[in-house]
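PROTEIN DESIGN WORKSHEET
SECTION A - STRUCTURE
LENGTH: 331
TOKENS:
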């Protein structure tokens, strides 16, 4: 009971920190903003500070919070599902699939909008979905998902798609290659608010749905036999968790490109603080992942201002040493 109280208090603190970061990050940038001017903009008085805040920075901050929350949630879900602490949202090939669709679309040079999504985003998401279906099909054994087969299929597909991506790079000209490399670094600089508002309800449903699988994931992360002995329908849980986790990962890849380390270090850091109970890890990962990527994006916008660094570079620079420190502390 005391442990649960500590976890609840921690969640409240994380929520307050998340909200503080969410509303303060738009004020951070190469140009300082006056909050009085921002408030005047809300009252209908157009001014440069209000335009920068609401039309440029806040949409980007909102996208970074959603992307970070989704990646951290997918990370903790896949680590529980695969019973592998090194699993990430991209372990099962979703990132490689999305990247393949994106580079092919860049090479073809098509420009077709679909429900507010650009042709690049649509191609990346569709390719991610097809990859999810392929991994799921290859990992099924007698009506159940084989975790070993799933990991092997995901890793193999990632390597194969990586080779195809290199081949497309080889065929591309200088301009196309620059676009491909820039996209694969991960970034939040291109924001379409229509896409964000359309996506938020679907993502919230996925978040809530996965939250209610927290107790079952606790059992499944121990072993499939333990989960079965407690009355858990293992195939149904595996299927639902895999599809939902992969879907939100595919969305992030399509919108923001592959952004690494968020889904790896955030769940590990949280386990050191609140333990292994997914009923608390899932909401904590959503809030912490959103806060972490928002901070990283603020750094990306300001470290070399006015140059905008791809946020994937920042997460890798911060995430790599931090994860090594976590490993050191555990040994």
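SECTION B - SEQUENCE
RESIDUE ASSIGNMENT:
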């Amino acid at each position: 009971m005391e442990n649960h109280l500590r976890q609840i208090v921690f969640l409240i603190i994380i929520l307050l920190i998340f909200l503080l970061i969410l509303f303060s990050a738009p004020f951070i940038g190469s140009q300082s903003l006056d909050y009085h001017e921002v408030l005047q903009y809300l009252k209908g008085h157009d001014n440069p500070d209000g335009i920068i805040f609401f039309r440029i920075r806040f949409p980007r901050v909102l996208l970074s919070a959603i992307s970070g929350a989704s990646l951290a949630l997918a990370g903790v879900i896949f680590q529980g599902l695969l019973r592998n602490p090194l699993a990430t949202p991209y372990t099962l090939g979703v990132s490689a699939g999305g990247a393949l669709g994106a580079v092919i679309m860049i090479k073809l040079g098509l420009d077709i909008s679909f429900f507010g999504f650009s042709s690049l985003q649509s191609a990346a998401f569709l390719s991610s979905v097809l990859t999810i279906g392929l991994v799921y099909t290859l990992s099924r054994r007698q009506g159940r998902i084989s975790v070993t087969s799933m990991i092997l299929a995901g890793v193999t597909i990632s390597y194969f798609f990586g080779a195809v991506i290199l081949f497309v790079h080889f065929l591309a000209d200088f301009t196309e290659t620059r676009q491909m490399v820039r996209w694969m670094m991960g970034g939040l600089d291109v924001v379409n608010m229509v896409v964000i508002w359309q996506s938020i309800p679907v993502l919230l449903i996925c978040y809530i749905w996965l939250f209610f699988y927290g107790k079952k994931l606790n059992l499944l992360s121990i072993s499939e036999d333990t989960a079965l002995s407690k009355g858990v329908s293992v195939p149904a849980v595996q299927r639902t968790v895999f599809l939902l986790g992969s879907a939100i990962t595919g969305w992030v890849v399509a919108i923001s490109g592959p952004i690494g380390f968020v889904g790896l270090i955030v769940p590990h850091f949280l386990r050191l603080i609140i333990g292994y109970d997914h009923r608390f890890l899932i909401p904590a990962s959503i809030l912490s992942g959103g806060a972490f990527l928002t901070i990283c994006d603020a750094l990306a916008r300001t470290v070399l201002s006015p140059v905008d660094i791809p946020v994937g570079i920042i997460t890798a620079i911060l995430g790599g040493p931090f994860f090594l420190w976590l490993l050191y502390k555990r040994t």
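SECTION C - NOTES
The chain is about 75% helix and 0% strand.
The chain has a mean pLDDT of 86.
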